[in-house]
Hints:
The protein contains 3 helices and 31 strands. By secondary structure, it is mainly beta. It has a 7-stranded mixed β-sheet, with no helix packed on it. Strands 16, 17, 18, 19, 20, 22 and 25 form a 7-stranded antiparallel β-sheet that branches. The chain is elongated and about 75 Å long.
Amino acid sequence: MTALAPGENRPAPGDQLTVTVASSASVDVSALLVNTAGKVRSDADFVFFNQPSGPGVVYRHGNGGPDVVSVQTSALPADVDKVVVTASLDGRGPATFASVGALTTTIESGSTALTFPISGLTTESGVVCVEVYRRNGAWKVRAIGQGYDDGLAGIASAFGVNLDDEPEPVAPQSSSGSPAQGSGYPPQGTPVHPHQPGSSAPPPGQFAPPPGAPPTGTPGYPPPGHGPGAPAPQPMYASQQGAQPVHSDLFDPSHAEVNGLGIQKQGGKMVKVGMNGEVMARAGSMVAYQGDLKFEAQGSGGIGRAIRQHLTGEGVPLMKVIGRGDLFLANSAADVHIIDLDGTDGLTINGANVLAFDSTLRYDIGRVQGAAGYASNAGLFNCVFTGRGRIAITTHGTPVVLTVDQATYADPNAAVAWSSSLQTGIKRNDSFGLGRLMGRSTGEASTLAFSGRGFVIVQPSELPPGGLLGGTGGGQQAGTGGSLFG
């Protein structure tokens, strides 16, 4: 095995190269395919944990061992000048490489191996380890060891990766210039509030009935020609194949699917999306669909957001659904609610409570203001949705919507979502005395404090996101777990 000094280069030991980065701290390894200008040709040339393959390059997670990048030089596109292999601290250990012991990169092909021990790093949280580059028609390797203080995001940005997530899409317009049918959001100027479009907004703290439900206080769903008090006939389903009809209260109109385009409540624990385009949904939340629909995994929804989600533990594992038909979504039989945003305010929400949202909405991951140094199941980092569109959220039980017109406080595990314009902070409720040291406490040591003008959605449960099992439906967890609030 040959050791390389910083800046030293050698001929690549073969066409098939295995680059291994071993560290005494947990690191994320990535690779960038760059052109002669030293920039990626597109974001597809950034190979990392959320995008593990590119032309001629494959990333493999170490699963307890070192991460590996495989490079086949003969498969690299002609306009790729070099492959840069990097390592960055993943947030689970030291903040900088100053306190990291060994960091070694090994390049192998067949029986030949080159090794590069990296040292002398101080404030850096990311480092370019080695590069595989073209020179006069041949491939060579060079030891680099250049550090970056801003980690993986800084490295990606330096090589031209676009860390700004997708621009806010333009809402579809009808010929009259108003939002197209089924767009799902209210007219400009409508307050941000949980309600159904086409009806007046309910009073603060109340949710409107689902589409198709009778007005409050009126009899619900008697069959035509049958008034109150009349015996309701057993609903019937007649088989199209000529079999005997099936009788069941399941065929009551209250169980029939709702009509229309866009995201709508289907009962209390499911949403139906009338599809004629696309919608973003929680990965694994599909329970049924009809028509011609295509499902595309979206990871966390963008390279920049994927990096932030990886470091914060917050985000939404997404899938994009495209086509024409009807899509039905649910999350572990949790209660479902619809919220329309009109663009004048945003919604801050735990990623574990997001079920689906219009692709016209933009979301990012942001720190909860005033909660620095603390963690909560409501999220030290939460998802922030902005723009105009509809979002479906879930709660554990029937929530209350508090209008913030005075000092308002909520248990961090019960606060599901709130207006992004609200100011947040932490209020200590227990005094830290002898009783606290001996384990006696009110059980309400700290609460989230809200001020300003807006609303807070509070569920009647202090379970961590996803419930006692710690999952969030469909198999992927999003949101923080555990709490330091006592």
